Amino acid sequence: MKSEVLLNLMILVLVAIFSSTQSSPDCDIVSPTALKEFRDSLSGSTLDPEDTAYKNASLMQNRRVTKLPGLIVYASDASDIQKTVLFASKHNVKLAIQSTGHSYVGRSTVEGGILLNLSELNRIDVKLNSVRSIHGEVTVETGNMWARVYEEVDKHDRVVVGGADGSVGMGGYTQGGGHSPIGRSLGLAVDSLLEVKLITADGSTVTTSTSGTTIKHTNGTVINSNDADLFWALRGGGGGTWGVVLSFTFKLHLPPNNGMVRVSATYPMYYYEEPILHSPGAPIMKKFTEYVKTLDNKWGGYILLNNVPLDDTMTYFGTLSCVLLHFGGWTQELQNQMEDLLDHLNGTTIHQDFKNYTSFWDYEGKTTPDKGGYRLYMYNVLLQNDSNFDGVVDLLVDHAKRVPLQITQGCTDVLIGGAMTDIPSSETAVGPGFRAATHSMSCYVAYGNAKDDAEAEKYGLQFGNELKKFGDGVYFNEPTEDIPDWKEEYWGMEKYSRLLEIKKKWDPEHLFWCHHCVGSDLIRKQYCSV
User: Fold this and answer.
1) CATH number belonging to domain 124-251
2) Which of 235, 240, 334, 434 is the most exposed place for a label (fewest CB within 10 A)?
3) d(CA 315, CA 115)
4) pTM, entire model
5) The domain made up of 260-485 is a member of CATH 3.90.1150.10
6) pLDDT tens digits for 62-107?
7) 109 with 98: CB under 8 angstroms?
């Protein structure tokens, strides 16, 4: 009798174990028939892993975060997006949204789920007579790249605040806040945002602005309200988590008088004299970071550095480039100011350049886009004027000494602040550290072979944790991938709490999920693959 009871208990345990390894009850299996009907219903094209174009289509700019979606959908219109959202919701399929694939931490791709590509949504509508913006407005669909938008508004003698790399789209960029080469003059991208149109998790078409929100449900019912919480969240609360944005409407601005000026000087960063790595670039970088504190808001710019070998002897490594952009044309006074700066930096340049551009588009159109193809781990810190910049430079030199030879280490330090700090922190979801920052320093360890992933990730996270101690906050769009305190670093807990409540209202089932996005740690259900 006892043996029979024990046998029955063993059978029950085995059944329980077997059941636990099967699909979750929440995970409906998408039948081949349902998947085919969905694909046939779309106006745009689709790709699955059997298609020859799939391999290239699934690649991310940062190859390290490339995943393998079960299906790639190229939406051709809002209807395709709505159908995709409803299909993913019905079958509990994880959904990722992609404009250009520039997310360095892989937020715009998905393993096994549906990758919704928006690159075919590329209409641009310029409206110079606007009651909302004295110099006009531009409505851009999310599939556009910034270079195309700059070129279009330039035809109307206008500028719009957007990214430095013209190959980047406006989807994730804008929702993360969006700093810009002209941001010190005109603010963040979200400071010029007038309206957003998007498809939300229940398939509704929503138009939202500071004036309120209009919801058109799938049954045709239209609801208007004064609630602008969603618009607040879309201005800095991060992309990929609120819905699928169809279009953004931005303020237009007048261009600078007589174009723009770019001043750059490049110096050797390191040389190796066994057993010591010297850095002639370090004191120059320290002087430059101190000097830019004195510049007015018409100046923006970058500091670029790396440790790439400069010759076959493995003696000279890396360059330091100090770049300034002036929102206005060339004058003799400007030239004298820049010559004084170069004398002050007191270094032997590899190259220096003073160049005048006729417009912002003339400058951006000649900027080399990011073509991707690398493997990297990025880390970021937002620095304020009272940060210890000398300490930051010393740390970066120390990182260059510690990183293995097969891994390249470098940074892009963007000069921010200026007009970006003029907007009260409460007006948008942008974190207080970002609002108060004068530098957004994004560093990386880069390499070519997947076998080095684990080592590079170890160094990247370690370096990122050391670097962020010098500032206040991390930029959502270019973050340290694995920081544990991401809510505090991106937004601060007060803003995060408000963002989470908005997330629960608009996407209670967490259809839209991405790495370290609002609510991403609260997932309770099993996502399915297609």
Assistant:
1) 3.30.465.10
2) 334
3) 45
4) 0.92
5) no
6) 999 999 999 999 999 999 999 999 999 999 999 999 998 889 999 9
7) yes
